[in-house]
Amino acid sequence: MVKEFIVLASILILFILSMLLHSLLFDTKGSKSAYRSIVALTHIVEPSFAPSSFEPIIRKGKKSRTNSIYPELPQINYLDFAYAQ
Amino acid sequence: MLNNSFFYFFTLSLFKNRKRYFAIVTISTLVIFLLSSVLFLSDSIKYSINSQLELEPDLIVQKRLGGRVVPLDESIVDTIAEIYGVSQVTKRVYGRYYFDKEYSALIFGVDFLDEQSSKALAKLLNREDLKRFLSSESMLVGEGVFNYFKSHFYPKAYNFLTPSGKIKSVKILKVLDRRSNLFSNNLIILPQELAKEILGLKSNEISDIALNVPNPDEAANIQRKLEGLFLNAFISGKREMQKEYENLFNYKGGLFLALYLIVVMTLSLILYQRYSLANSLEKREVAILRSLGWSIKDLLGLKALENIMLVLFSFTLGLFLGYLYVFILKAPLLSELFLGKNLQTQIEFLPHIDYLSLATIFILYATTFLSAVLIPVWRVATTEPKEALS
Q1: Which of A26, B104, B175, B282 has an alpha carbon within 20 to 30 A of B148's alpha carbon?
Q2: Rounded-to-integer distance, Cα A65 and Cα A52, Å
């Protein structure tokens, strides 16, 4: 059972080493300079994913039905034909 | 040490009872995985934001009516630039463009006459691209925006609908570096005049003004002067923004930390009950070893070593899985919790780890785990083996 224990301990060490290696070899400088090039232009230092807390947001309601072939085309329903007549 | 009989017995006990330990290790690993991934993610985002904060303008001048940000007249810029102690006054034009009810992008207008902006733009584009950007109606888009355009059959240009009802076709000149997705994912960079047209601003209107105050001692005085410039002026500073984000991420991370504490306490209570229950397997094992002549010290040593191994194994495995989930798999689902869901693409999080908070979690976890096991073991070990077995 000592062998199994040594194998287990080496796996744990391997986990720790792989995390350390990844964080050391990661191109942090490159990512930071990519951030810098954007922030220097916009002067906006905030994650760009969601609207900020102070911005007016259109709350999500029902999912709008979209045409799968050309999503921005307005949907045609039978009333359009009725009004057209 | 490896030939030591005590060590041999410890490994034997550890591996023979692996089925018994499986549930504890699985639950502990899951708890550590969840908490560590939340911590890794919030620390990484905080670190990325903090690393760029020096580029954030010291003060931002906005006009707010009823809490809403409204456009400013750009003639105020000259008045602000004349204030003693103020430097790098930049007119900013930006706003959100909604593609539909769900998805939106941040439109930012670049002022070519502004020295800082033109320098930053020159770094972002090569000379030919810069010429094309200046001469034609084109835009730079983040990866998320580009993916949205592509999926909606606009791979080369997009038709913006202006507030006046006109359609404005703008060419896609370049997709921004995907490494900057954290800041540029839903960003559209346009020439300022074009941005004004799409956002519905008049030619003399801007969104807000950014400025720097090189001497921090003058900041409060300048802020007072700016507030007196016009009615409804709203001045926000770099520190306030920093605090706002720190509070937001600490709040979200704190929620998970509170949940973690509850789960760890519950787990240790279960363990405590398991070890102190009459006729439990653990209790019998301790009593048998005592009757075979093991001292209390050796027994506690064996149980401590066994459980330290379990703690180390589950903690390292949980941490490794958390690291893998956040920094290799880019934290699917969890990243939406921190960054919101809008034009999502994968973003690379900088592997930054706050060792102090990890150490705190480990100490909290290890001490509760070990005390929950060792206290009942010590109580059984100090009673007569006969009594414990009966």
Answers
A1: A26
A2: 26
**What gap in Å lies between CA B242 and CA B256, rounded to an integer?**
22
Q: Which residues contact B11 (CB under 8 A, 6 or more apart)?
A: A1, A2, A4, A5
CB contact under 8 A, A12 and B104: no
Mutate to test the interface with B, among A28, A36, A48, A75 (most CBs of B within 10 A): A48
How far B384 CA sits from the closest chain A CA (Å)? 31
pTM for the model stands at 0.78
Report strand pairing: B205-206 vs B233-237.
Answer: unpaired
Concatenate the DSSP letters of all residues of B146-164 into one string: HHHHHHTT-SSEEEEE-TT
pLDDT digits (tens, 9 = 90+) for B306-355: 889 889 999 999 999 999 999 999 888 888 777 776 666 778 888 988 88
Distance CA A62, CA A59 (A): 10
Beta bridge partners of B97: B105
CB < 8 Å to A63, chain B? 102
- The Cα of A5 is separated from the nearest Cα of chain B by a number of Å equal to 6
> Best mutation site among A3, A31, A60 for testing chain B: the one with the most B CBs within 10 Å?
A31
Residue B106 makes CB contacts below 8 A (sequence gap 6+) with: A44, A48, B94, B95, B96, B97, B186, B187, B188
Contacts of A17 by beta carbon, 8 Å cutoff, 6+ apart: none
